[in-house]
Amino acid sequence: MMKQLIPARWRVQYKVIQRSTADVFTGQRSRLVPFSPMDGSQLQQFTPQVTIAQPIPATTLSENKKHNLALAIQRLQNVVVQPGAIFSFWHLVGEPNRAKGYLEGRTIIQNQLKADVGGGLCQLSGLLYVLSLKAGLKVLERHPHSQDIYTDATRFAPLGSDATVVYGYKDFRFKQTLAMPICLRFELSDRAIRAMLCAPLPILEYAIDFQRENVDGGIRVNAVRLLNSETNVEVLHSTVYQTKQAELAEA
Fold this sequence. Notes:
Helix content is 24%, strand content 30%. It has helices at 2-5, 8-26, 40-43, 62-74, 89-93, 122-135, and strands spanning 47-55, 80-81, 86-88, 104-109, 112-117, 138-141, 173-175, 182-188, 192-199, 207-215, 218-226, 233-242.
C-alpha cells in the first residue's frame, strides 16, 4: 500500500538513481557506450555483417509506434561500440517522455495490453537481442515478456526473441566481446524495420533458433545456437511464457 502512495514519477526516478549507483559500484558506468555517432569519414569503413528485418504490424497505434521508433533510432544510429564496452538501451535512448516528442503506443503493463507514452520500443530492443545472439555478443540483461499475447498468425517475431524494456526498471544490455569496433544501423519504412550490426571486417554470424515445447500453463522457449547440426545446440536462454491472453493480440 505504501508503494502505491508514492507517485509513479518518483518511483521511476528512484529506480534510475538506484541503477546508476549500482553501475558505479560494479564498474559498469565507465564502460557504458556514450552517444557519439560516427562522422562521414568513418561511415564507409563499417559495412553490414548481420541483418534482421521485421514487419511492423498495422494497429490503431502503429503510426505512433513508428514515430517512437524513429526517435529512439536517432540515439542508436551509427554509434560506435568499442571492444569491451557495455551497450545499454536506456543509457543511449534516455527516458521516452512527451517532452522528447514520444507518443502513446501499445505496450504490456501488468499483463495487460495498453497504450502508454513511448510504447512500441520493445520491437527495437528485441531486434538488438537477436542481433547480439547472432553476432556472439554477451547478453548481460534481457527481460522477456511474461505472456505470449500473439498467435502464430499475428506473430511478427519468433516467440522467445523478445526483450522488453521499461525505463528505470528493465534494460537491455550486452557486452561487446568482438575484437573490433561495431556499430548499429537501422532502416525504418512504412511497414517494416531493418536492424544491422556493422563492422569494418567480416564477423562470424551464428545460426540461432528458438525451440518451443509445451509445459504446464504455457510454452518454454529455448534460444539456442546451432553448432554443426540442428540437434547439436548450445542453449543460450530459456523462457517460459504464459499463454492465457493470446486474444490481446487482436486488440
